[in-house]
């Protein structure tokens, strides 16, 4: 245990040293001005940060619903449901998220008036839901056949089989993969800047342009993203330990 802890300390120390050396080498040619950015524009960064959290939260919520529904459809005995779920997954996993955002906001948005926030949430939910459905499918199929047969023997119907047996175990076994997908979703939310949504990346770009402090602005944006994803990772580790199958 102590050896592993020492190795972590050494690894992080080396990384910090490399970053510090890189920073000082850059400072010889680039005049960093940290008092100008981010402190002068902190309120604007926080507004963008709030928007990123907002669209990420709602996208994770809806992507989970979509992922569970289609993940279950992929494991049913009804072939038509399987084919429909596979078609959805194939489409959304093989089209870049950026293109999906543009299609929904400028395509569907030209027929039905939707805001940039709603368009981003719909695009992220559909895109990430396709990946989550595959994760859930894998989790369901990892449950032993013996448990399924035993549940059927005691008279559980299909609905209760999924609710009481398959899905709880699927969530437990797929927690690491789901956490990774949620982190990916948060980072992918930066693409919403292409539809002029005032999220974190868009705000950072605007401040970089107006302040002529590109490095400071984008490093600040990176720190905000790192904060969100690190918290998600810690939360995922907590639930992994809490609901571990022993």
What fraction strand? Answer: under 5%
- Which architecture of the largest domain does the CATH hierarchy give at level 2? Orthogonal Bundle
Computed over alpha carbons, the radius of gyration is: 22 Å
- One letter per element, helices H and strands E, the order comes to HHHHHHHHH
What's the CATH H-level homologous superfamily of the largest domain?
A: MetI-like
Unreliable segments of 5+ consecutive residues = none
Please write the CATH class name of the largest domain.
Mainly Alpha
Mean pLDDT: 89
Number of strands: 0
Q: End-to-end distance, in Å?
A: 21 Å
Structural class: mainly alpha
How many distinct domains?
2
């Amino acid at each position: 245990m102590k050896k592993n802890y020492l190795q972590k300390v050494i690894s992080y120390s080396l990384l910090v040293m490399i970053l510090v050396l890189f920073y000082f080498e850059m400072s010889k040619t680039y005049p960093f001005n940290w008092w100008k950015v981010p402190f002068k524009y902190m309120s604007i960064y926080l507004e963008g940060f709030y928007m990123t959290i907002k669209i990420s939260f709602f996208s994770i919520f809806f992507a989970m619903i979509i992922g569970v529904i289609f993940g279950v459809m992929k494991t049913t005995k009804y072939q038509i449901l399987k084919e429909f779920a596979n078609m959805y997954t194939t489409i959304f996993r093989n089209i870049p998220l950026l293109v999906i955002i543009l299609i929904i906001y400028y395509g569907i948005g030209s027929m039905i008036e939707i805001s940039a926030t709603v368009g981003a949430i719909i695009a992220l939910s559909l895109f990430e839901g396709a990946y989550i459905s595959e994760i859930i499918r894998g989790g369901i199929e990892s449950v032993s056949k013996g448990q399924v047969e035993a549940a059927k023997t005691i008279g559980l119907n299909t609905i209760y089989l999924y609710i009481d047996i398959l899905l709880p175990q699927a969530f437990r076994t797929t927690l690491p993969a789901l956490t990774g997908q949620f982190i990916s979703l948060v980072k992918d939310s930066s693409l919403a800047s292409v539809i002029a949504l005032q999220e974190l990346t868009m705000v950072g770009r605007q401040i970089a342009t107006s302040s002529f402090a590109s490095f400071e602005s984008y490093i600040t944006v990176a720190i905000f993203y790192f904060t969100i994803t690190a918290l998600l990772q810690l939360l995922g580790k907590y639930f992994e330990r809490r609901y571990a199958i022993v």
